[in-house]
Specification:
mainly beta; single chain
């Protein structure tokens, strides 16, 4: 492993560090970085490798961790701990970041979260190993991997590595990295997702972004479109197509539905954060699944929470969902639980 001194000029410093002694060790810390930042090595790019941190965190709300395969400051893989959630199911998190949007509301549960009682105000280690599309994380001293990632969500490509400073209370005592020759996995590779089940929308056509306040179904002909293939369970991460620029936080996701007859079909929908459903130009439904919209514990994580009955005409039907994002992930998924006489395809 190659250890890099934390006061080295090899780092890009968005926020000037302070060298201090903390819990008996010399380390660096930062003065309450509002909103957090990335601390990136200037001269290291890895496709496959290992990153190790030794850190101490306070109990304040924060998101401290590791960054790898960073194409730039808005596109990278990330793993972080949540000190304010120690021991809870989401106390640690792996998530991709695309176009500046961290998609933790889209990627949750097994393979993305875990309940880990890492220490507060004590030194502990994080180790992230990654090769091809597989990743593995150790937090603290464990006999088995803390988190096994079956499929990393960003492309397997060379990128920079570094530290996510996600708020106050972070002290760093060590950063080290190794290349592909040092990658070892302690556990078995988790199974990959199965093929898409029948009834799931497999492909969406995604428009360029616009302001949610300017939502107008009549602007479809003015939009530019990008085909986005959904993941096996149906999730489509819209941040792969758009970031939020100048308040443009909404996009259309469009699919063609062919029905062999006139029928009312139950359509289950997941989205983050707001959605308005149109069928053949007519608005049928609007939903809000933002953070804490259901109760104070609701994280805004995407799920199959909403259902709308679609009055399908015989032949081709134009389904359009306007999806708006606040924070935490910009996504959509859709499925017909009973897909009798229905054929799904993308719309160019």
């Amino acid at each position: 492993m190659n250890a890099v001194p934390l006061d080295s000029s090899r780092w890009t410093w968005p926020c000037e560090p302070r060298v201090v002694e903390h819990l008996g060790r010399e380390c660096v810390t930062f003065d309450d970085p509002e909103g957090g930042f990335l601390l990136m090595l200037d001269d290291v790019e890895l496709r496959d490798g290992v990153i190790e941190l030794e850190l101490a965190v306070s109990a304040e709300r924060a998101f401290h961790g590791v960054v790898w395969r960073a194409a730039d400051d808005e596109n990278y893989e990330a793993f972080f701990v949540r000190p304010h959630q120690v021991g809870n199911p989401d106390s640690i998190q792996y998530t991709p970041v695309s176009n500046g949007i961290s998609s933790w509301q889209l990627y949750h549960g097994e393979g993305f979260w875990a309940s880990v009682p890492f220490p507060i105000d004590e030194w502990f280690a994080i180790r992230v190993a990654f090769r091809d599309m597989r990743g593995e994380v150790d937090v603290g001293e464990t006999t088995t991997p803390t988190l096994a990632i079956s499929e990393l969500k960003r492309p397997s490509a060379r990128g920079r590595v570094g530290v996510q400073v996600g708020g106050p209370g972070l002290h760093l005592a060590r950063f080290a990295y190794g290349d592909e020759t040092e990658v070892t996995f302690r556990g078995e590779a988790p199974p990959l997702s199965e093929a898409q089940p029948d009834g799931v929308v497999p492909v969406w056509s995604v428009s360029d972004a616009f302001r949610e306040d300017d939502l107008d179904i009549g602007t479809l002909v003015e939009r530019t479109w990008t085909e986005l293939v959904a993941e096996p369970a149906g999730l489509a991460d819209l941040a792969r197509v758009n970031g939020i620029r100048d308040g443009r936080n909404c996009a259309f996701a469009r699919a063609s539905i062919h029905s062999d007859r006139r029928q009312d079909a139950r359509f289950e929908l997941g989205f983050s954060d707001h959605a308005t459903v149109f069928l053949n130009g007519r608005a049928l439904y609007r939903g809000d699944d933002t953070y804490r919209s259901r109760d104070y514990r609701f994280l805004g994580s995407i799920g199959w929470y909403d259902t709308v009955v679609l009055p399908l005409d015989e032949g081709d039907n134009d389904l359009v969902v306007a999806v708006a994002e606040d924070f935490g992930g910009w996504g959509i998924q859709g499925r017909f639980p009973v897909a009798t006489g229905i054929t799904l395809s993308q719309r160019s």
